[in-house]
């Protein structure tokens, strides 16, 4: 079995190491510039040794995961000596395998495996990693090895090229990071009627969980609910008036999101084309055509 080492003891590297170790993979060591982080990593992974130098770890492992911040992946790869037959892997969603070109030039196989998942911290990362979808970019035979790792973690797979990575990662940011932004905007609006953002968050948790369940169980476009799905122009008019009064800075975002929601409503079949046309006029803020 391949001896696996990690450079970078953050949440992603720790999550991979802990979960792979639990599934029988041999994790031989960790290097991190922060000794305390390396110690926490080693404490969580059976048989894992702390290396004082990154090169010593690279010399001892058959497969090295570079799980540092994205911007320094190329620097880490370029500063080390690699050998033919060795595998060098990163877990970035946006960076391509070209960030590992220095290792490739020395004969190593290079690849990337990115979990399409959110990691708010170390423990959450360990718990959330299994069952994720993993985006793999690599050539054979490393492609097969990374596929086996994804399957061992109970995940689904998507294979990407370098050209795909930026758009793939942008889409994930919209689905995850900007989702948080939208919820924050919604909870902050409660302050305009004398309630706290904390109260709003508590109120929205069941709603958000129900929404995710609808996506999982019903899918698009059937999961869509609300006034646009119903073609309820009067409700949308009330929304626009309230936002114009209390949160005019949010009004352009509300209009744009509404316009992007109309095609989902028409695809569902609950929003007629005539109502969709009226909604577009209303949300664009242009005079209604006779």
Description:
The chain has 290 residues and is of the alpha/beta class. The protein folds into two domains: 3-174, NAD(P)-binding Rossmann-like Domain (Rossmann fold); 175-284. The protein has 14 helices and eight strands. It has an eight-stranded mixed β-sheet, with helices on both faces. α13 runs antiparallel to α14. The N and C termini lie far apart (73 Å). The model has no long low-confidence stretch (mean pLDDT 96).
What is the CATH-assigned architecture of the largest domain? Answer: 3-Layer(aba) Sandwich
User: What is the CA-atom radius of gyration, in angstroms?
Assistant: 24 Å
- How does the helix and strand content classify structurally? alpha/beta
> What number of structural domains do the residues give?
2
CATH topology of the largest domain: Rossmann fold
Fraction in beta strands: 5-15%
Count the strands?
Answer: 8
Spans where pLDDT lies below 50 across 5 or more residues: none
- Which CATH top level class of the largest domain fits? Alpha Beta
The residue fraction in helices comes out at: 40-55%
Regarding quaternary structure, what we see is single chain
Number of helices: 14
Record the strand order, biggest sheet: 3-2-1-4-5-6-7-8
Shape: elongated
Biggest beta-sheet profile: 8 strands, mixed
Alpha carbon gap, first and last residue: 73 Å
């Amino acid at each position: 079995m391949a001896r696996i080492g990690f450079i970078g003891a953050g949440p992603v590297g720790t999550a991979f190491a802990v979960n792979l170790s639990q599934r029988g993979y041999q994790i031989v060591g960790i290097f991190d510039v922060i000794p305390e982080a390396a110690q926490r990593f080693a404490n969580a992974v059976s048989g894992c040794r702390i290396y004082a130098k990154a090169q010593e770890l690279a010399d001892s492992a058959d497969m090295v995961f570079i799980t540092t911040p994205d911007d320094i992946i190329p620097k880490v790869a370029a500063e080390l000596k690699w050998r033919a037959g060795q595998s060098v892997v990163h877990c970035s969603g946006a960076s391509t395998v070209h960030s590992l070109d220095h290792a490739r030039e020395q004969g190593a196989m290079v690849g990337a495996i990115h979990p399409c998942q959110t990691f708010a911290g170390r423990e959450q990362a360990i718990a959330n990693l299994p069952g994720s979808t993993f985006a793999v970019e690599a050539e054979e035979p490393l492609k097969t090895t990374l596929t086996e790792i994804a399957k061992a973690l109970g995940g689904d797979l998507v294979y990407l090229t370098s050209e795909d990575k930026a758009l793939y990662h942008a889409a994930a940011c919209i689905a995850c990071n900007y989702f948080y932004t939208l919820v924050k905007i919604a909870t902050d609006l409660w302050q305009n009627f004398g309630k706290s953002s904390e109260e709003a968050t508590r109120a929205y948790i069941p709603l958000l969980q129900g929404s995710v369940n609808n996506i999982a169980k019903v899918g698009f476009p059937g999961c869509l609910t609300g006034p646009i799905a119903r073609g309820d122009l009067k409700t949308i008019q009330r929304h626009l008036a309230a936002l114009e009064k209390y949160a005019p800075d949010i009004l352009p975002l509300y209009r744009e999101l509404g316009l992007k929601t109309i095609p989902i409503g028409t695809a569902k079949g609950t929003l007629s084309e005539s109502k969709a046309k009226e909604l577009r006029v209303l949300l664009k803020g242009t005079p209604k055509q006779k």
